[in-house]
Amino acid sequence: MKGARLEFSPREFVEPAVDLRYSPKCPAQMAPALTADTCSEDVARGLRAYDPQVTGSWLQAGVHGRGPGRAVVRGLERLADLGARPENTHDERLRQGTLIFSSLLITAISTIWVTTYLAYGDPVSAAIPGFYQVITVIGLAVLARTRRFATFRNTQLLAFLVLPALLQVSLGGFVASSAMVLWTVFAPLAALALLGIRRSVPWLVAVFVELAALALVDSRLAQSPSALPLGFVVTFLVLNIAGVMVSAYVMLSYFVEQRERAHRDLRAERERSERLLLNVLPEPIAERLKTEPG
């Protein structure tokens, strides 16, 4: 019967390892079989391990360690929290951190293009990756202040889609630009990670439309190619292919590693909560709460 008090015989009751400090703070929905005055803070703390929102906050703490690898992970976690709101889940923070990390990575790579194009007297082409660097830095500053991740996300997706195509046009087509349009692959990939499959499809379609348009005008663009030597063109083609592959791999590796780490921490917290339940409740009741949480 709902609200009825559970009674135990002396043989069934196991003395808990911690004091049961009765408190009305225990949420009834977590332990419907117990009345409010029989629920302790310790029991509530153990039961909350099965609450995804609370568990997510535990996962944010992570596993603290030492060494350069841990310092890198902590740095990435700080990036993930740059535009996070308190109501964001761990998965949302992970996706946001992945986009911020990939944006900073591409910003760093853009320095090579800016320097090279300026060195060969092409300020227009140099201005395009330079513009991406500026909007990324400004976007991160605004994100840290306003916590409006959607604005930063949409700006980055548009930049991934449009700027590589503009740079390819300014350099004189597919060959002269070393297939700069390859970098547009980040638009549908980032949209897939951030928006899901259905909402990322338009970004994928936009990339194909853009490729078709560039192919149609390529012969005209090739009539006035950039002044880069052939050796640089070939080198940049290799760098573009390798850069896209490495950047995508690093971005996805970070995403996968953080998800695996979250699952490991979740398993550890569940085991901890199970031990806590066994310490404060008789085993039959603890098993019932785990199998029938509602």
Descriptive notes:
- Keywords: Membrane, Transmembrane, Transmembrane helix.
- The chain crosses the membrane at residues 99-120, 126-144, 156-174, 180-197, 204-222, 228-256.
- The protein has 294 residues and is mainly alpha-helical.
- The protein has a domain at 99-268.
- The chain has 11 helices and no strands.
- The chain has helices at residues 41-47, 52-61, 68-80, 90-119, 123-146, 149-171, 173-176, 186-195, 197-221, 230-280, 283-291.
- Helix 4 (90-119) packs antiparallel against helix 5 (123-146).
- The chain starts with 40 loop residues before the first helix and ends with a helix.
The CA-CA distance between the termini, in Å, is 14 Å
How many helices does DSSP assign? 11
Name the poorly predicted regions.
6-65
Task: Provide the helix percentage.
Answer: over 70%
- SSE series: HHHHHHHHHHH
Q: Tell the overall outline.
A: elongated
The major sheet is characterized as: none
Our Rg estimate from Cα atoms comes to: 27 Å
Report the portion of residues in β strands.
under 5%
By DSSP, the count of extended strands is: 0
Mean pLDDT value: 77
Helix/strand class: mainly alpha
Structural features:
70% helix, 294 residues, membrane, transmembrane helix, transmembrane, mainly alpha, 11 helices
Summed up, what is this model?
Keywords: Membrane, Transmembrane, Transmembrane helix. 70% of the residues lie in helices and 0% in strands.
